[in-house]
């Protein structure tokens, strides 16, 4: 019943819609229409399917209407040509044109009005058909005119307002042909009008109930769908909160632990390398003491953004590991590419030129980075990589800060060997070359 055609809008729009749906669920029993927002959503969700069903029902009704030519042949053979003209020359093209318009897509009001018009036209042509015949049986047809109402009110299930209007028009048309008809007694005429009026009342009642149930079912489904979407959104928000560092927006340590284990296993399975950078802002205590904790937070955010800017967005994971320490996890990274990325980050942060007065090695905020790269094996725990990168970081600190140090874990039989490089900003080319070797 609910199609996916309608745009769902943002969370605020959904909340408003959900409140409107709740209010509509307790609207007075006699009110079919929803509040404007829900009505618009109802139409958007159901109109394509409704038009489709109306076209199918309309074609069936048209075929049935034309089959009544056999009835004409039996009860009014002398005016068969007139009947054929009314059915095939007028009703069929008009009906097909109306159905084509509905198929192409009309506004809800035009769609209902078009379908209601086909009912009124069918009643008019049927009335003309019986009226023009002199056959003593021709009037018999009027007893089946209630079927026309049945098609409009039940088979088409016209929206109630249109069902009511078309039924009233049909009643007026029929009465205006029945009353002046000359070949039948008044008692029979009254009888046929009473049968027709009863058909109108019962089919309208059924029509009202059908529309009311359709609308109620739609409201319940829409409420459930909006509720599910809200829950899904809450879950996604919670998942994001639980994996993200609130200050910087990068991944938090909890998320890092999960991803590290995953990437480690993938690297074992695919026999690829895994790189890790551990980054620590130099003399950040001094920065905080001098510029205040709030400025310190701003600095942390800038540094996190810069790190993210210099890594592969799809592949690498940037993490705030704690305090002023970050980690970057780099799947499928060689020693040289990991070191180059580290160097790009280091230079990028220096280029931010965030003043950090009063520190011995630099007038601006700088960062030291320990780089480690390994080909993981099942015999090696993931923490090995972190320890190596951490050791390299401390070496960078010891050697004067604002530098990258590479600690490369190499496979050589069963033993592992640590290779460290200690390039300074001025000796990058040689260090990168060494890393590549
Ligand atoms: N503004 C701010 N400061 C933080 C946050 N977390 C940790 N810090 C500060 O980061 C500073 C870390 O200082 P230290 O561990 O002494 O290291 P450092 O001064 O950076 O010195 P080195 O690492 O040796 O270069 C401390 O002053 C912490 O208060 C935070 O979320 N916001």
Automatic annotation (TrEMBL):
Pfam families: GGDEF (PF00990)
Its EC number(s): 2.7.7.65
Alphabetical UniProt keywords: Membrane, Transmembrane, Transmembrane helix
Transmembrane residue ranges: 51-70, 82-103, 115-132, 188-208
Disordered: annotated span: 409-437
EC top class, as a word: transferase
Location of the GGDEF domain: 272-409
Polar residues: bias regions: 428-437
Recorded catalytic activity of this chain's protein: 2 GTP = 3',3'-c-di-GMP + 2 diphosphate
InterPro entries named in the record: Diguanylate_Cyclase, GGDEF_dom, Nucleotide_cyclase, Rev_trsase/Diguanyl_cyclase
NCBIfam families named in the record: GGDEF
Descriptive protein name: diguanylate cyclase
Species for this entry: Billgrantia desiderata
Classification of source organism: Bacteria, Pseudomonadati, Pseudomonadota, Gammaproteobacteria, Oceanospirillales
């Amino acid at each position: 019943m609910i199609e996916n055609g309608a745009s769902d809008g943002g969370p605020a729009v959904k909340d408003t819609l959900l409140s409107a749906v709740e209010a509509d669920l307790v609207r007075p029993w006699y009110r079919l229409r929803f509040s404007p927002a829900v009505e618009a959503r109802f139409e958007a969700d159901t109109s394509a399917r409704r038009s489709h069903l109306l076209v199918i029902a309309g074609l069936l009704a048209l075929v049935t209407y034309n089959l009544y030519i056999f009835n004409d042949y039996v009860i009014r053979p002398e005016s068969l040509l007139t009947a054929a003209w009314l059915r095939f020359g007028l009703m069929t093209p008009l009906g097909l044109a109306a159905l084509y318009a509905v198929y192409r897509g009309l506004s809800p009001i035009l769609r209902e009005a078009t379908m209601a018009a086909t009912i009124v036209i069918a009643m008019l042509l049927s009335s003309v058909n019986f009226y023009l015949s002199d056959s003593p049986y021709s009037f018999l047809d009027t007893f089946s005119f209630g079927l026309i109402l049945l098609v409009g009110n039940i088979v088409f299930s016209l929206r109630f307002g249109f069902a009511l209007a078309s039924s009233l028009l049909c009643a007026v048309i029929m009465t205006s042909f029945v009353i002046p008809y000359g070949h039948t007694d008044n008692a029979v005429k009254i009888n046929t009008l009473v049968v027709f009026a009863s058909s109108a009342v019962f089919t309208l009642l059924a029509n009202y109930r059908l529309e009311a149930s359709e609308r109620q079912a739609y409201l319940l489904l829409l409420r459930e769908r909006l509720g599910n979407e809200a829950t899904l959104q809450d879950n996604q928000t919670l998942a994001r909160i639980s994996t993200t560092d609130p200050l910087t927006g990068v991944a938090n340590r909890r998320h890092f632990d999960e991803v590290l284990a995953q990437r480690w296993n993938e690297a074992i399975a695919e026999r690829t390398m895994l790189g890790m950078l551990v980054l620590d802002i130099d003399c950040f205590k001094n920065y905080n003491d001098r510029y205040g904790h709030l400025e310190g937070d701003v600095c942390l955010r800038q540094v996190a953004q810069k790190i993210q800017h210099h890594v592969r967005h799809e592949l690498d994971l940037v993490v705030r590991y704690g305090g002023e320490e970050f980690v970057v996890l780099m799947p499928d990274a060689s020693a040289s590419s990991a070191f180059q990325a580290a160097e790009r980050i280091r230079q990028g942060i220096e280029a931010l030129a965030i003043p950090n007065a009063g520190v011995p090695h630099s007038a601006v905020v700088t960062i030291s980075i320990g780089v480690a790269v390994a080909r993981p094996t099942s015999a090696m725990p993931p923490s090995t990589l972190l320890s190596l990168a951490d050791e390299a970081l401390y070496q960078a600190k010891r050697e004067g800060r604002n530098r990258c140090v590479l600690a490369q874990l190499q496979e050589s039989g069963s033993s592992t060997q640590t290779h460290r490089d200690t390039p300074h900003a001025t000796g990058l080319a040689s260090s990168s070359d060494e890393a590549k070797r």
